[in-house]
Design goal:
This protein is of the alpha/beta class. Helices cover about 45% and strands about 15% of the residues. The chain contains 14 helices and twelve strands. It has a seven-stranded mixed β-sheet, with helices on both faces. Strand 11, helix 10 and strand 12 form a beta-alpha-beta unit. Helix 6 packs across helix 7. The longest helix has 26 residues. Bound molecules: nicotinamide-adenine-dinucleotide.
Length: about 400
Amino acid sequence: MRSSDAIGIYFRRAADELDLSDGTRRLLLTARREVQVQIPVELDSGEVATFIGYRVQHNNARGPMKGGLRYHPQVDLDEVRTLAALMTWKTAVVDIPYGGAKGGISIDPTRLSSRELDRVTRRFVDAIHDLFGPDVDIPAPDMGTNPEVMAWIMSQYGKYHGFSPACVTGKPVEYHGIPGRDEATGRGVGSLTLKLLSRLGRRIPGTRVAIQGFGNVGTHTARFLHDAECRIVAVSDATAGFHRAEGLDVPALLRHAQAHGGRLEGFEGGDVLSNAELLALDCDVLIPAALGGVLHAGNAEAVRAPIIVEAANAPTEPEADEVFDRRQITVVPDILVNAGGVTASWFEWVQNRQHYQWGIHRVRQELDRILGEAFEQVWQLSSSRRVSLRTAAYMLGVGRVARATVLGGIT
Ligand code: NAD
């Protein structure tokens, strides 16, 4: 199943609970604008290569549209469209004044030099600079892009529109970025995991956690939960996976990854395990923090963790979701639990507009507050309406967007 189908199903469940009309559903599901542009660049070899870039601006009923820019060979319009809608519901769940957007270039960034990527990024900005900006649509890093790419975007945008640091977020701290943006998604995943454990009356120290993915989100989640005295019993990435029932040495894992280009391969402090084994491990909390669609009809029955925390975007297919529902496995949905990144992006945008700097403590404090409040609202709605946390999160997000759309006037 494509992730667009899965997210469509989750939307429909919430729309049914909210009793939305067919007309409103169609309005909320249709993107405001979808752009596809040609990006011709000269490679270092002197050859010309042409790439395709996309930006989908899904909805701006609650504020300027916000969403990442992904560089990956499999980027296509369908994927970007799906992720743009997901951003609209996500910003609404945590109640920050943004809509949703997403962009991407169909490209393998690992095969281009830094100078080539710089040129590709700037040509993309040349093609769409009139369509985004601080009050319209604000890109951010996503898979395959990083703070440096965001710096190129700001620099190129400035050539047309003057000094505008708020036109993009996730910038380097030394170039109008903010401390704490990098860790924000993992911190949010970690802090909401602790909130859930407390809500369920479970003891936090010693909680056994398995994490799939050891990139930006996986590493910061592991660090946060390790500091909270949870036991990280398994981790994996695209190169390897490791298990240790007494808990892995997280600082050693982080040092190993840092010394090996982010890869876990070659770590010696645990038994080797596969990604399939990690997903079926006997543990208390399972955190998919890598790819979408990893929990599906084929492996849902094998999952043994009573709690799943969706750090990745769209890791659970609807068939698996139904199995988890039936088996009373608690699933904390992506649009709530991984919203820390976009929330910290909002802080960066606010500070850029005020030409002011908050400092790391205020960033963390505000982040914990906003995510904590959103968690409480989703939890209450889930209890009062007797629906899953996912349906409750979609109801909250979709309901807020629908209300703002009506208040703003449709015609
Ligand atoms: P990343 O590129 O930094 O890390 C991805 C990790 O997944 C790497 O460790 C990689 O080796 C691993 N991986 C790739 N293929 C795998 C496979 N087949 N099996 C196991 N592991 C595999 O990406 P990230 O920023 O950490 O994002 C991870 C997920 O979180 C994505 O779904 C992303 O959309 C989502 N997300 C990220 C943010 C953010 O702020 N970075 C915000 C919201 C959602």
